[in-house]
Amino acid sequence: MIRDITLGQYYPGNSYVHKLDPRVKIMATLLYIVSLFVVDDFLGFAVAFVGLAVVIAVSKVPLKFILRGLKPVFLIISFTFIINMFMIKGEVLVSLGFLTITREGLRTAVFMAVRLVLLIIGSSLLTLTTKPISLTDGIEALLSPFKKIGLPAHELAMMMTIALRFIPTLLEETDKIMKAQQARGADFESGNIIRRAKALVPILVPLFISAFRIAQDLAMAMEARCYGGDIKRTRMNGMKLRSGDFVASAIFIVFIGLIILERIML
Q1: Burial of 83 (0-12, 13-18, 19+ CB in 10 A)
Q2: Does the residue 220 lie in any domain?
Q3: Among 86, 152, 169, 237, which residue is least crowded by beta carbons within 10 Å?
Q4: In degrees rounded to 5, what are phi and psi of residue 102?
Q5: Arithmetic mean of pLDDT over the chain
Q6: What is the pTM of this model?
Q7: Which of 110, 102, 250 is CA-nearest to residue 118?
């Protein structure tokens, strides 16, 4: 299950989505996430789903690879669904002793589960179609106007990108540690949830040690290459908006407009 997490991974490709300017993709992702919390009916979620499906098709990232990233958060989605279904009051549909399922609760539970699924897939597409260095440059460019008030745009962009980039690395380290523990007789799969959680405690110490080692190696490598933050830093490939970026931005503006219009009309 650890290897199923796709957040932070980059899927190599040469699609139209891969070639888009990272600034366009970052802003589109943020606006898409906001739009998911704006819609509150089946039609709005249908529009959001169709838009996401089109982007996935154009990106040429295998759907199976994208859906694999939902496995690790399936328990969270299920828990959210159950909590909303039983805790919201309204017209009772089913009564199970002290637990009741209401029409409003069921509707909210379905919407919340769909919202989380679309949010996770939409966020994953950003990292799957954008190289880490391009993502750093895009975030820095979007934060650069705030430099006037003392915001360290480059440092923040670098930290965010490194955090995303090293999610797969740390997950791989966790998988190695778990396999080493299992080879020594550790059991992570039997027993109830509490017992499984306790079995994971011995993994934390070597994982933290490994994380600090990776961080130290990265810091030494950056220092050996005379990395000095944003001081006199140049780029091999500068970012420049092309015609395809303007077309994608126009299409996305129309998409967001449809969601807002649907919300206003209904």
Answers
A1: middle
A2: no
A3: 237
A4: -105, 160
A5: 82
A6: 0.75
A7: 110
